[in-house]
Design brief:
- The protein is built from 10 helices and 11 strands.
- It has 308 residues and is of the alpha/beta class.
- The strands form 2 sheets. It has a 6-stranded mixed sheet, with helices on one face.
- Helix 8 (218-231) links the parallel strand 6 (193-197) and strand 7 (235-238).
- Helix 2 (56-71) runs parallel beside helix 3.
- It is globular, with a radius of gyration of 18 Å.
- The chain starts with 26 loop residues before the first strand and ends with a helix.
Amino acid sequence: IRLIYFNLLQLPIRGKFFDEYQWKGPFYFIQGADPQFGLMKAWAVGDTNNGDDEWGEEIKLAEQAVQAINKLNPKPKFFVLCGDLIHGMPGSQWRKDQEQDLKNVLKNTDQDIPLVFVSGNHDIGNTPTKETIDNYCKNWGDDYFSFWVGGVFFLVLNSQLYFDSSKCPELKQAQDVWLNEQLAVAQKHKCKHIIVFQHIPLFLKKPDEAHDYFNLEKSVRQEIMEKFHKAGIKAVFSGHYHRNAGGSYRGLEMVVSSAIGCQLGEDTHGLRVVVVTDEKIVHRYYSLNELSSQGIEKELLDMLAKQN
């Protein structure tokens, strides 16, 4: 099993790794998506290719997100960022500066809250190559991996390989083989739930909706949905859309979370709180202001207090 990365250090979860196969009662984690340093300026000036030369607003929003998470009590088990960490595509002018500024913000995350990174299209390119993926891995950790927390099995996938793997078909095949192996591991260990993180949603609202930039092509989507359904996967958490959305397919919930950074709809900059109980997965999207000032609502805290 690949190792989870946290606090920008390539280390396994603290020596308790193997304890995590066992269910120990309800817990929660934080999902964020698309801090995408540079998009707000690029979107404002109408140049998403070269207009990303300022990202001061995104720095402030990411700092607010980290500060809100650090104040939470009890602490979340981890904080996952579902892709598009920065806006600059591979090889673009401002990319390294954007990455460094994001790392400078994230290193202030509470040391007891692991960080989990998911690769997005801006992180590895719309049509990724071995080189762009290797560069991502050097900066942020593996592009796909699995980990256990409290009897729950988590899978991080590189969804860009499902979107366009034309320049690296062997890497898509490798992820497919690995995924089948991981699902077999999950079945063997009889995990409480299986949860997937990927950048691009399978679909935004309906499983049979038309293909566009913000979801996966229909035949690819159908194959993945069936595989996930048969494996008993409960939920897929994604970003990419910069709006909240979601739906379900045969008991599989597709959760699409809006961005920490630039909003493309009517939602607010925010984070999703995800509570995992014995029977179900319950989640709510909070604006950064709301989470920072009020914390997690009593209904969710009560779920965490119940011991199964």
